[in-house]
Amino acid sequence: MTIFRRQKSSKPSSTGRGDEAGFTLVELLVVIGIIVLIASLAAPQVLRYLGSARSDAAQAQISNLESALELFFIDNLRFPTNDEGLSALSTPSVELQSTWNGPYLRGADALVDPWGRPYRYATEGSDFVISSLGRDGQEGGSGEDADVTNR
User: Fold this and answer.
1) What rounded mean pLDDT belongs to the chain?
2) Does the structure show a pLDDT above 90 at 30?
3) How many CB atoms neighbour CB 61 within 10 A?
4) Residue 30 and residue 57: Cα distance in Å, rounded?
5) Confidence band of 14 (pLDDT split at 50, 70, 90)
6) Strand order in the sheet with 148-149
7) Which helix (H) or strand (E) holds 132?
8) Helix (H) or strand (E) holding 21
9) pLDDT per residue over 63-74, tens digit each?
10) CA of 52: how far to CAs of 49, 63, 74, in Å?
11) Which residue in 50, 84, 112, 120 is deepest, having the highest Cβ count within 10 Å?
């Protein structure tokens, strides 16, 4: 069975193939089979890179949040309280109106991890922890499900 075969012509073809123009169904199936084989071998590797890219992006965002918190500390001589949270980096609380020199961070999208959940923030005195729970949204885990933190 031939697909896309031209009618025989009395004139010679410019490609020199004559009436052999077109592809057979077998040729098309072989090409599609090769494409499917390559895609099935490459897809797991691409998905693995996508997962590690999200974890890497979360780590980079946490580093940016750390820098913004350090700038906040320089101006206000303290880190945001647990109640103020990371939102204190973009909008000042009433008590910080006189010393706040922000915004230290532009956009609320920086406060959300690559999986769409807000970053967790906790402070105790002069130390703070910023974390994301990873893909599964639960404590612990490994691989893409592992927690990403600044500590």
Assistant:
1) 81
2) yes
3) 20
4) 40
5) low
6) 120-124, 127-132, 148-149
7) strand 127-132
8) none
9) 999 999 999 999
10) 5, 17, 33
11) 84
Q: Which amino acid is at 63?
A: S
Alpha carbon distance 39, 43 (integer Å): 6
What burial class does residue 107 get, using C-beta atoms within 10 Å of its C-beta: 0-12 exposed, 13-18 middle, 19+ buried?
exposed
* Separation between Cα atoms, residue 148 and residue 119, nearest integer Å: 10
DSSP 3: E
Containing 58, the helix (H) or strand (E) segment is helix 25-76
The span from the CA of 21 to the CA of 7, in Å, is 9
Determine contact, residues 146/137, Cβ cutoff 8 Å: no
Q: CA-CA distance, 76 to 98, in Å (whole number)?
A: 9
Token pair in block for residue 66: 């750390």
Q: Which residue has the higher pLDDT, 119 or 8?
A: 119
